[in-house]
Amino acid sequence: MANCADCGFITLRDEKTRGFIEVEDIYRKTGAFSRNGLFGIYPLCFKDIYCIPNEVETARKKVGDEVKDDGVGGQILPQYAKYIKEVLDTSRDCNHFRKWQQGYSPKEHQGMIDREHERRWHIIEVTLILVVGLIASIGSALVGAWIANGRLP
Q1: Least confident span in 15-29, 62-76, 137-151
Q2: Contact 21, 12 (CB under 8 A)
Q3: What is the DSSP track for 90-102?
Q4: Domain locations in the chain?
Q5: Which residues are within 8 A (CB) of 153 and not within 5 positions of it... i.e. 6 or more apart?
Q6: What angle do CA 90, 9, 82 make, to 5 degrees?
Q7: Whether 32 contacts 78, CB under 8 Å
Q8: Residue range 19-33: average pLDDT?
């Protein structure tokens, strides 16, 4: 089982570029972060498999907690962070999980997967070419022997 806190596809949105950015280690461990420069306060699943914001709100509403931004430098109140952490730490059966590598954005994690698939296909293509070449060589040798001797060896 995997959890979102360890996944390379958990992301936040940059306020200026609206691009997806890496979620830092401290956020993954505590759920607390500075909102400055970010669009929204929730982590997102880059692969759009899970709706993390809805899960955080559901966790918060289960206990009837009213959570607000403290208004000081965009910091999220500690009780809000606990709901984010709870959701990020939830065990999931996710076919899209990719172990987080610090320093890489979700897009770069997807690029790693794409390159792995390309390498696998390249190996399959080369193997098929070699097999077809081997079969063609054996077939040519048999046809050549048949023509030379009037019969197959």
Answers
A1: 62-76
A2: yes
A3: -EE--TT--B--T
A4: 2-104, 106-153
A5: 142, 145
A6: 35
A7: yes
A8: 86
Helix or strand holding residue 44 (H, E): strand 38-45
Tokens 């936040």 correspond to 12
Does residue 64 or residue 116 have the better pLDDT? 116
Report which of 48, 24, 30 is spatially closest to residue 105, judged by C-alpha positions. Answer: 24
Pull the structure tokens for residue 15: 């306020």
CA–CA gap between residue 123 and residue 49 (Å, rounded): 30
Cα 55 to Cα 8, 64, 108, 111: the distances in Å are 19, 14, 26, 27
Global confidence as pTM: 0.68
CA atoms within 13 A on the CB side of 14: 9
Using one digit for the tens of pLDDT, what is the confidence trace for 49-92? 999 989 988 888 887 666 555 444 445 556 678 889 999 999 99
The angle, 0 to 180 degrees and rounded to 10, between the axes of the packed helices 52-62 and 78-88 is: 120
Number of Cβ within 10 Å of residue 27's Cβ equals: 21
